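SEVERITY: medium
COMPONENT: batch folding queue
REPORTER: lab tech (J.R.)

DESCRIPTION
The queue accepted two submissions in a row. Attaching both inputs and their returned structure tokens so the on-call engineer can compare them side by side.

ATTACHMENT 1
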Amino acid sequence: MPRPLYSSLEAMLRPDEIGRLLGEDVTEVHVSDFSATSAFSGSEFLNVALNGEPDPRLFVKRIDGARDWMARATSDDRCRSVTLWQHGLLDRFPLEISSAVLACAKDEQGHAILMANVRDDLMAQGVRMMAEDNDVILDAMAALHAGFWLDPALLDPDLGLCPPDELVDFLVLPPKRVAEMLQEPPSLANPGILQAVLEGWEVLPDFIGGHAADRVHAMVDAHPVLSDALSRYPWTLVHGDVRDANLAVRRAEVEGHGPRQVVALLDMARAARMPPALDLGWFMSTSWQTMCCDRADVIEGYRARLEDRLGARFDRAWWEPQLDLGLMANALFFLPFFAGVLHKYESAVDHPNHQPRLDALQWMSEWVEVGEARLRSLGG
């Protein structure tokens, strides 16, 4: 039986309920606005302090699915972050990962998720990643993927996982579709990314050249073939949004294993049953500013960890093609987005992000070239 949801945010935040969840005496709950919203979806956050303590021990994420463009784009009608908790999938995370989720509730037009406060341990955005943190994140990602490798539980429709073809559809946002999404009621909570993508399609040739931009458009048009090709390879649970804002690296006491580094992996809104390169590509694409080592080393570091966990189940015959296709799928999303950001905000050559963003556009363009060649070799 799935876990029940609290009927409201207020019911979930009652002192007696918080005390029951934490296994301690809670007499006072103080809720305050946290002055930030998710840069991607527009979700809102609340601080939750207990018993007069000065620092919030918990926080709440409030999700309005009707105004979340990512939820619309991936048909997340039931809120995957909630359904995966309800059906116990988060409880099966490996020791290397914590979901930080304590409870969930219905909340006005959407849902509210109560979590442990891990914000102090979140990866610093725009700050170069330490090699140790990079290793811990790759290890956690490999552990997650190996732990759910070809797991039949992921076939359960009640989980509400993002359908594989819709995750590819989400990554491939042609200009016409983006314009339609921006015009659909109700108004979106945070349309900035879509607006950047729309503008980015217009200026993309200025940054990667007309021939390369034509290749990107051709692969966008061929995305059903890409989706079909990806479906040929072994699948697992992919998080769908592995990036610094959703990653907290912290020391934690793991029962029976003592203190160890644990990654709190937040926000399962785009969780899907897909080949593992979809997560690896997203992590690399969003870490263009902070990656502490060469991209080839990141890929090899993840591959070695996954192979170590899968053993005989690992085979380069599927690893290499799904890698090429997965990296290309991510590049098809980020190329127009990055071009739009570069055009609108970072066009000055002395802007600190100007050259690094140009470099990122170049290697993503190369991902598309390699992915196109792989798709042709498969008869796509």
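ATTACHMENT 2
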Amino acid sequence: MSWQPEHFDPTPPPTLEPPTPPRPHWLKRLFAPVAGAGLLLWKLAAPLLIAVKNIKFLATGISFLVSVAAYASIWGWRFALGFTVLLFVHEIGHVIQLRREGVPASAPLFIPFLGAVVGMKELPKNAWVEAKVGLAGPVLGSLGAAVCLAVAIAVDSDLLRAIAYTAFFLNLFNLIPLLPLDGGRAVAAVHPAFWFVGLFAVAGLFFWHHSLILLLIVLLGGRGLWHRWEHRHEPESRLYHAVTFGQRLTISTVYLGLVGLLVLGMEISYLHRTF
């Protein structure tokens, strides 16, 4: 015996047909193919855009390897690799500070036997910013050399000592107060007269060592010194070099402190036996 509710109707309900979807607006019908084509082009172009964006990193990597190969031809690949890594650390200090100051900066580009350069899309806002950017490289570079020296002492490695000594010397040399060296950018916030000290120092080194690199620095530094000194009384130059006493004191303290620490680092890492 089956159970059925009252007023049960055994007839099945009528079949309901699905409603007819509305026709799309004529504008949608017109632009749908265009949107589809645009989406397809974007999918095809996206990898190319990413590749273009990464070209600068590719250039950094290639120039890094070329520099390692160039230095390895003279000092061996292990020393060349360690030296170029510490050079990279130095340049990254500039990049970090530039971006902190809101100045767009490129990745470092290595130039064998000349170091490396960092491109700027605009100049620093004033001499205070320029000085901080200039000192950021030697600061981070000195820390990198100090870490290398600490590892060298821990494992008793003459190779790492030699790399640390070279990095200390490189950062100290960069503090010579002459453009385009880092020291020239730092003393711009102290007094432009220090550029003459740097020019005479590098010129003296050139007459002592007869190095083409020193001659290039003298020529570039002399040109930059002449340009800035000639325009020093112009309103834009005065505004650019308007630095407070506290800022001058800060730059001077960091500059002199770095010089002392780098000299100390060179003394500690100096090898007193043949390497």
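NOTES FROM REPORTER
The chain has a mean pLDDT of 80.
No errors were logged for either attachment.
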